[in-house]
Amino acid sequence: MQTPQNKLYCTAQIREAERYAIDELGIPGRELMRRAGYALFEQIRQHWPEQQIVTVFCGAGNNGGDGYVVAKLALQANYQVSVYALTDPNVLPGDALSAYQDFLQAGGSVSDFEAGQSKLQGVIVDALFGIGLSRDVGEVYTLAIAAINASSCPVVAVDVPSGLHAYTGSVLGCAVKADLTVTFIGLKCGLYTGEAAEYCGEIVCSTLDIEDAVLAAMPPFALLLDKIELPRRARIAHKGHFGHVLLVGGNLGYTGAIRLAGEAALRSGAGLVSIATRAAHSSLINIGRPELMCHGVECGETLQALLDKASVVVIGPGLGQDDWAREMFNTVIASDKPCVLDADALNLLAEQSTRRENWVLTPHPGEAARLLGCNTRQISSDRFAALTDMQNQYGGTCLLKGAGTLISNGETVYVGTTGNPGMASGGMGDVLSGLIGGLLAQGLSLDEATRLGVYVHGEAADSLALEFGERGLLAGDLPERIRKLLN
């Protein structure tokens, strides 16, 4: 058993690695199945040592074969074993059929699953579908999955929770909610983004002892996000060394968004933070935070004077889409300043489809759908493809928010590992945009600032949720915690 690393692989890569192990390294498929079964059973014994009962659900492919291997091992260890087959095991493919026959020879028996009648107890092993599932789950399997999810038993998924797309992380009609997922050969992309967080539970990876020979030479499809450490500041540093962030937004009725973004930029460590907002409330935004330099700006000419002094621009929080917003947006886009676009700045960008390399785009799925001229269902069905399309069309560094936030600079894809449901409240995106802008101002690259910003943004929320709980977590709670984490 190997500790999961930060490398993620798509389904095609895992299949190629398995093929290489069988055809080039001479490891029989049956041996790989045996190793998978042993890895699964070992995890069951480690996680639930008091349990002596297992209920195994077996499907029609090699995933079902893994289930039969586990069932045999449990039987030999004097567990009480129940196996439910969702398809006739006598028509299983070669290695899976052999695993089924071995289970029978060891004294096991198999029953057909009957919804409402079959008894579920002990640890449930989900061996219904593997990484090959690409269509909605059929009716019979839907009933089995519903029964698994309705039980109070701990659930371990074999390779991937059945019903979850192993590449996109989307649910194909319904999916098993596992407490533990034991995945094989390498970590799959779909276990870490989209809807996966609701279904995978703890994720453990067994390489089946083929990683060094196969995956080491295979470039990963994506990387799990790690924290970037900032260097120690020089003892002679002054505010001019850490940049000047200009934030543009806060239209009438939306002062909170730009204030949150401004405070996040300050707490990130930016040397100076200015806000360009509507004149009607420019004197109100920095009440309680006098370090924010607020300017009433009603035309592009006035904004240009502020742009000339800034090193980085963040535009979008509370911007709106009226004539004032459009003038502010067009003035910023016409400049050559590196910038972060969020919220309504993204909606305005969708109307003109401009491309440049020195910006960061920060859409949630709805904004991404407008940028790409599609709907949110299409975005959610394949988040990796949506991210790639967005980066190809607009350039720069793009991120796609949501559980398992995705980041791409056109070369490498990163998958976020921090954050929690407590962040489902207004203003969180404003804090993130200000944080990224502040990190850019301090000299980080677009890619580095975005990666660190996303990581620390989620890390701050996680630490607050651990301390106080997820419900009631506010965007305004994050900046002070962000400061602590960046130090």
UniProtKB/TrEMBL annotation:
It comes from the Bacteria. Its EC number is 4.2.1.136, 5.1.99.6. GO terms for biological process: metabolite repair; nicotinamide nucleotide metabolic process. Residues 222-487 form the YjeF C-terminal domain. Coiled coil: none annotated. Keywords: ATP-binding, Isomerase, Lyase, Metal-binding, Multifunctional enzyme, NAD, NADP, Nucleotide-binding, Potassium. Pfam families: Carb_kinase, YjeF_N. HAMAP family: NADHX_dehydratase, NADHX_epimerase. This is Bifunctional NAD(P)H-hydrate repair enzyme. It comes from Methylomonas methanica.
